[in-house]
Amino acid sequence: MLMRLSHDLGLFFYDVVVARFDLWAAFGVLAQFVFGARFFVQWIASEKAERSVIPVGFWILSIIGGLMTLVYGLARRDIVIILPQLFSIFIYIRNMMLISKEKEKKKAGNQTASASEVEAPAQ
């Protein structure tokens, strides 16, 4: 029984990794690596800050990896990949918009503070 199971598993992995492996499968694997790399970016940033942080690089890798995975799902016509990626990409882009908006507010606040310092009379 164990011999049969190991033989069947060997055939399964041969079919998945060798027989069915094509350019799209290679692209899909690359997409997953890009998507997964975002966790390393987040982990390194959190370790440096000694607190949990989510850097912009995390969201950039999320968008790129998500788009690549979406393309892969469309090429494979796999609804299980397509639908979640469509919704996820929207969330990643929205987070980037919120980060950009926050940076603009900080920049405007710094410019206002600098302008008020210049206008204040010297005593």
TrEMBL record:
<dbReference type="InterPro" id="IPR011499">
    <property type="entry name" value="Lipid_A_biosynth_N"/>
</dbReference>
<keyword id="KW-0472">Membrane</keyword>
<dbReference type="GO" id="GO:0016020">
    <property type="term" value="C:membrane"/>
</dbReference>
<feature type="transmembrane region" description="Helical">
    <location>
        <begin position="79"/>
        <end position="97"/>
    </location>
</feature>
<protein>
    <submittedName>
        <fullName>Putative membrane protein</fullName>
    </submittedName>
</protein>
<feature type="transmembrane region" description="Helical">
    <location>
        <begin position="23"/>
        <end position="41"/>
    </location>
</feature>
<dbReference type="GO" id="GO:0008915">
    <property type="term" value="F:lipid-A-disaccharide synthase activity"/>
</dbReference>
<dbReference type="Pfam" id="PF07578">
    <property type="entry name" value="LAB_N"/>
</dbReference>
<keyword id="KW-1133">Transmembrane helix</keyword>
<keyword id="KW-0812">Transmembrane</keyword>
<dbReference type="GO" id="GO:0009245">
    <property type="term" value="P:lipid A biosynthetic process"/>
</dbReference>
<feature type="transmembrane region" description="Helical">
    <location>
        <begin position="53"/>
        <end position="73"/>
    </location>
</feature>
<feature type="domain" description="Lipid A biosynthesis N-terminal">
    <location>
        <begin position="27"/>
        <end position="98"/>
    </location>
</feature>
